[in-house]
Write a structure and sequence with these properties.
With about 425 residues, the protein is mainly alpha-helical. It is built from ten helices and 16 strands. The strands form seven sheets. Strands 1-7-8 form a three-stranded antiparallel beta sheet, with no helix packed on it. A three-stranded antiparallel beta sheet has the order 3-2-6. The structure holds zinc ion (ZN) (7 copies). This is TNF receptor-associated factor 5-like isoform X1.
């Protein structure tokens, strides 16, 4: 039932406890006046009835009792009558449904807001049921098809009307195994049950990998294994033999690969030592060539000194051989210069090649070591040579002077 104020127009549609004066009744709606107005012709109308009538009559309000035309300023609210009406005693609108409430008209709206016999709509949004307020909670808790319930299997909240749909897919609903093993399994565990434990699942014999092709229900496997022990043993033996052969072949392969590896290691070592030897040989060669050069230089110096000494002798005593020797001295110097040039060229060429073919680190180390060694050797050698040469020179001078003096004396005697 609509609230009394919410009606579009009209007076109070209520049940009064006592008869009341006609002056409380609207001539338009024939109900108790609601917000009454008094007209200039002395009649009363509900405010809403007067507005509705003016609207329907192109803005003109005519008194329904005496046809007086009433301008808006010719009516006014009658607060005194309104107060009287609101104090009249009424019964609850739901008295036919056994509501016992009675009270002043002005209190009826607040009573209807909580009247147990008032018809109300179910609070579940999708539900269209209207029901007495006193039955609402029972409806919503136990009867409404849009009430929320817990699934007893998965404990999810679902609408009561969707329970059937939910059970068709509920993962926790226990179902009989499709293999008809007689067990009830949760829907989500059925596939693992069938794969891992169902007694009726058809599986291969556990000795499939050694060649048994028996297939049967899981519960029959025990009987099969017990009755096929001999066969399984034979299969196992031939499998072992085959594996042994395979292992042997693999071992042979491993051995031959190991040998090959050893051979390659040896070859690598040989190549390393050959490379090392090549370096040593080359450096030794350079060392020897330098020594030869020094020796040749020393020899030339020695020969020049011995020829120069001859200058202090009388010319007639200088023999041809000795002159020839002196001339040869120039040749020797030329030869030495040529040799030095060639040697330097070779040395440069070698050093360039060597730099190209070897890394810088090695060169630095090698050059430092080599230079140290070489300088030490050269110094030693120079010391030795100087000593030897001085000795030789002294010997030679003594011998030559003796011989010359003897010859000269002999010639003089002659
Ligand atoms: Zn009215
Ligand atoms: Zn009137
Ligand atoms: Zn009531
Ligand atoms: Zn409902
Ligand atoms: Zn469920
Ligand atoms: Zn099963
Ligand atoms: Zn088997």
């Amino acid at each position: 039932m609509e609230s009394l104020d919410a009606k579009k127009f009209g007076g109070y549609d209520v049940y009064f406890l006592q008869e009341h004066s006609d002056k409380y009744e609207c001539p338009i709606c024939i109900m108790a006046l609601c917000k009454p107005i008094l007209t200039k012709c002395g009649h009363r109308l509900c405010l809403s009835c007067s507005e509705e009538m003016r609207k329907r009559n192109n803005g003109v309000l005519v008194c329904p009792l005496d046809n007086t035309i009433l301008k808006p300023e010719e009516t006014f609210r009658d607060k005194a009558i309104e107060r009287d009406i609101l104090q009249l005693k009424v019964m609850c609108n739901n008295f036919l449904k056994k509501c016992q409430w009675t009270g002043e008209l002005k209190a009826i709206n607040s009573h209807l807001g909580s009247c147990e016999y008032e018809e109300v709509k179910c609070l579940n949004e999708q539900c269209t049921t209207s029901i007495l307020r006193k039955e609402l909670s029972d409806h919503m808790e136990t009867k409404c098809i849009y009430r929320l319930i817990n699934c007893q299997h998965c404990n999810q909240k679902i609408l009561f009307c969707e329970k059937q749909n939910h059970l068709e897919s509920c993962e926790c609903l226990p179902l009989y195994c499709v293999n008809q093993c007689g067990m009830k399994i949760l829907r989500k565990e059925i596939s693992s049950h069938i794969i891992d434990s169902c007694a009726n699942t058809i599986i291969f014999c556990q000795y499939f990998s050694i060649g048994c092709n028996f297939k049967g229900m899981r519960k029959e496997q025990g009987t099969h294994v017990n009755s096929s022990t001999q066969n399984h043993l034979l299969m196992a033996i031939s499998k072992v033999v085959a594996l042994e052969n395979k292992i042997m072949i693999n071992e042979e392969e491993i051995t031959s690969l190991k040998n090959e590896m050893e051979m390659r290691k040896k070859q690598d070592t040989q190549v390393d030592s050959l490379t090392q030897n090549q370096f040593l040989t080359t450096s030794k060669m350079i060392e020897l060539e330098n020594k030869i050069l020094l020796i040749e230089k020393e020899m030339n110096t020695k020969m020049t000194i011995s020829n120069n000494e001859k200058i202090y002798l009388p010319e007639e005593y200088i023999d041809d051989d000795y002159n020839n020797d002196n001339n040869n001295d120039e040749d020797n110097n030329d030869y030495n210069n040529d040799y030095n040039d060639d040697y330097n060229d070779q040395n440069e060429d070698y050093n360039e090649d060597y730099d190209e073919n070897h890394n810088e680190d090695y060169n630095e180390d090698y050059n430092e070591d080599y230079n140290d060694d070489y300088n030490n050797d050269c110094n030693d050698y120079n010391d030795d040579c100087n000593d030897d040469f001085n000795n030789d020179n002294e010997d030679y001078d003594e011998d030559y002077n003796d011989d010359y003096n003897n010859d000269y004396n002999n010639d003089n005697d002659d």
